[in-house]
Specification:
Layout: H1 7-23, H2 40-46, E1 51-55, H3 60-66, H4 78-88, E2 92-96, H5 112-128, E3 134-139, H6 147-155, E4 164-167, H7 178-193, E5 198-201, H8 214-224, E6 233-235, H9 248-262, E7 271-274, H10 285-298, E8 303-304, H11 317-324, H12 331-339, H13 347-350
Parallel strand pairs: 1-2, 2-3, 3-4, 4-5, 5-6, 6-7, 7-8
Helix pairs in contact: 1-4, 1-12, 4-11, 6-7, 8-9, 9-10
Length: 351
Amino acid sequence: MQTVLPGNMKGLLATLCSALLFAGCAMSRGQARPVEEATLADRVVLAAPVVDHHQHLFSPTIAAMISADPAQRSGLAARNLVPLLDSAGIRWAIVLSVAYMYGSPARTVDDEYALVRAENDWTAAQAAEYPDRLLAFCSFNPLKSYALDELTRCASDRKRHHGLKLHFGNSDVQLNDAEHLEQLRRVFRAANERRMPIVVHLRASVSRNRPYGAAQARIFLEELLPLVPDIPLQIAHMAGTGPGYDDPPADSAMAVFAEAIEERDPRTRQLWFDVASVADANISSASAELLARRIRQVGAGRILYGSDGAAGGNLEPREGWAAFRRTPLNDGEFARIAGNVAPYLPGALKR
């Protein structure tokens, strides 16, 4: 008979199992076993991530705006997410506000800034219902006139807003645009001054076919990273967008960061990468091999597990971790990634 553990016990068990597996990493020098040879416990429990560093919640207001499916218009609340974390054995999650969606140039809404504030506050309030499980990051379109005001507002309440999420694709940020770049400099300087960690979806808009690749990654490395030396910066989706890693422009951007890290560029000291949705259930062998190569280039110690919002066809955390285990890494690398905790988490969560 299967024993069903309470959510908090499952999270604790997963954390302990991850630590135990990591302790044996020195003996794991071979290639990872094929997924079909690994047991479900190997894939999901023994190496369960401690933290899901890339999650989203959706208020009923924003869900109604972005979804035509009546079943999804009620949104996704913290009470829906936490059981998914329990199922995966994941103890904590970072919930990244989707308030930036109101500022997308693809739509026009009345009282835009009021809606942005409300979504950020709703996300923070949801996370506060599970203070030992969830941390909220606020968000906005960084090109908007209210961007610095909202950053300041969020930073003034660090018990509720722990960092900043920027989505360059949704906000149609173009690093080649001088005006965009200057506004981003203002936002990055302000985030560093207020010690607001940043999670950035760096990939430029796919639907608008904006330029993206090695050139844009170099601009980011040379013009923006030097402005945030005092805060962690997490690049989402391994510089792509997901699902999957079949995105040559994103990989060329990722190669720039990997080379900089290999050369010990000091600008990369606080640079991290999450793997949210880059290894989906249908990832090809070639894409999986390439993903593994980039992970090894930057080092498994810089890789943060994330599964993305459990909506719109995205994999839930448990399935997302199982899909990531298809990547041809070895057991020690998986254990290292599972145990990684971003430096922006409060010290209490690292103990």
